[in-house]
Amino acid sequence: MKRPRLAANFVFLLGVLLCLSILLGSMVMMAFDRDAEDPSTQQDQKVSEADMSFELKSNAFSNGQSIPAKYSCIGRNISPGLTWSDPPVGTQSFALIMEDPDAPMGTWVHWVLSNIPVDRRGLEEALPVTGKNVANANGIFVGKNSSGNIGYDGPCPPSGTHRYYFKLYALDIQIGLLPGATREDVLREMDGHILAQAELMGTFSK
Questions:
Q1: What does the alpha-carbon distance between residue 38 and residue 95 come to, in Å, rounded to a whole number?
Q2: How does strand 93-100 pair with strand 162-171?
Q3: What is the reported pTM?
Q4: Over the stretch 157-167, which tens digit does the pLDDT of each residue have?
Q5: Please, are residues 103 and 161 in contact by the beta-carbon 8 Å criterion?
């Protein structure tokens, strides 16, 4: 008499497991379809892939190495030369931000450039402050740094060793800001328009 009841229980349990398997499979497929259709997810993947082939370098120092003193406040305080690889298709301009995240009062901005022409593949050493007061299609717009200066101010840590990040952005627009814009202004304008980002980090201590 017990065998039919056991068989019935087994069949019932098997049916429950089958239903749970089908439900779980449906949920997985729905999540996959949402990710495939989500433009933000696709954009994140595209930017990540573009970042892998977009590189920023300097002939003055290698990534993670010490920045020579001549580019600092105890030297000539000139900007280092930079070069970069070809950007993604659709790039209309570049923006560059140099910042120190180790500053005592928070991130300290040393250099802000925007509307770097798309045909450029580098910046020469001791870049002159051009396009500072004139909005034109060929000039690089120079922004205001944390010292309140329009131009480049080199590494000048009060103590210890600080990291300095040069961040280059390939944008699908030309930023509609006048020269003298701050880092925050530039970041706000290029939000949603970054095709790729390249980064170079150097260290410095007095």
A1: 27
A2: antiparallel
A3: 0.74
A4: 999 999 999 99
A5: no
